[in-house]
Amino acid sequence: MPIDLHAHSSASDGTEPAAQVVASAARAGLDVVALTDHDTYAGWTSAVRAAREVGVGLVRGVEISCSYHGVSVHLLAYLVDPESPGLAAELHKARRSRVSRVDRMVERMAADGIPVTVEQVRRLAGEGTTMGRPHIADALVASGYVATRDEAFADVLRNGSRYYVSHYAPDPVTAVRLVRAAGGVPVMAHPFANGRGWTVEDRVVEEMALAGLAGLEARHRDHTQLERLHAEELAARLGLFTTGSSDYHGAGKQNRLGENTTTRDVLEQIEAEATSGVDVVRA
Fold it and tell me: What does the alpha-carbon distance between residue 161 and residue 179 come to, in Å, rounded to a whole number?
């Protein structure tokens, strides 16, 4: 029963519409896939329809971009109530901040003669999309300034670049509490992927666990073997489960659906812990 609990659509920074992500999951041989776009539920409705059409189980989720003293923390929230006011307000605030951040980054680049405009980025992102640096990267690729998203992130879009601007992101402990209040199940994404940038110390994960964190995404492409083992050992010490996921972005990243998977018993535990009334969509 191949289960992949981390995938993105064009509602955030993936390249495929939500329905196509589900169809891609079916072609990849998955039995269950989770749609976890950044700070938005926008892809849920079309993903549900597609899941029933192609016969793939669907876990509805969201990836919440958090920050702990400037260190990025990503929190996967499964089976949350999208109407829960506390979490909805935080996601709305984050999306608004992302838009202004993109505008400021693009303005800085354009001032230095880099061929990109706000209008171009918004057109490529599409209406209602959670804006982010990948959409600036797409505009840079379209203009011929770089060849790929990866090249853009290695240069002008990297953390620490003169064009970098931060955006609003909640504290991860607060986010865990909001997810639980929304009846969902919080899992920390790629917690020790130091190749992506700074990661938080174990004590922060411990604080998140005390607030209701349920699991750690240990099996992820961006974890080294040592980082994976560290996640598994910490999860065991804190009484958390572990997951494996692809973090699929379509053509936006090299990650492939099903390259890391989660066991059936962990999915059952996620379903058992959820209190929102949002169920796994079954074929």
Answer: 32
Backbone angles phi, psi at 176, to 5 degrees: -60, -45
Q: Count Cβ neighbours within 10 Å for each residue of 89-117 and write b for 16 or more, e otherwise.
A: ebbeebbebbbebbeebbebbeeeebebe
Contact 32, 4 (CB under 8 A): yes
Beta-ladder partners of 78: 61, 185
Rounded CA separation 98/38 (Å): 11
- What is the residue whose two structure tokens read 């992302």? 98
CA distance 80 to 77: 7
pLDDT in tens, the chain (283 residues): 799 999 999 999 999 999 999 999 999 999 999 999 999 999 999 999 999 999 999 999 999 999 999 899 999 999 999 999 999 999 999 999 989 999 999 999 999 999 999 999 998 888 778 888 999 999 999 999 999 998 999 999 998 899 999 899 999 999 999 999 999 999 999 999 998 889 999 999 999 999 999 999 999 999 999 999 999 999 999 999 999 999 999 987 899 999 999 999 999 999 999 999 999 999 7
- 70 sits in the region (left: phi over 0; alpha: psi -120 to 50; else beta) called left
How many CB atoms within 10 Å of residue 19? 19
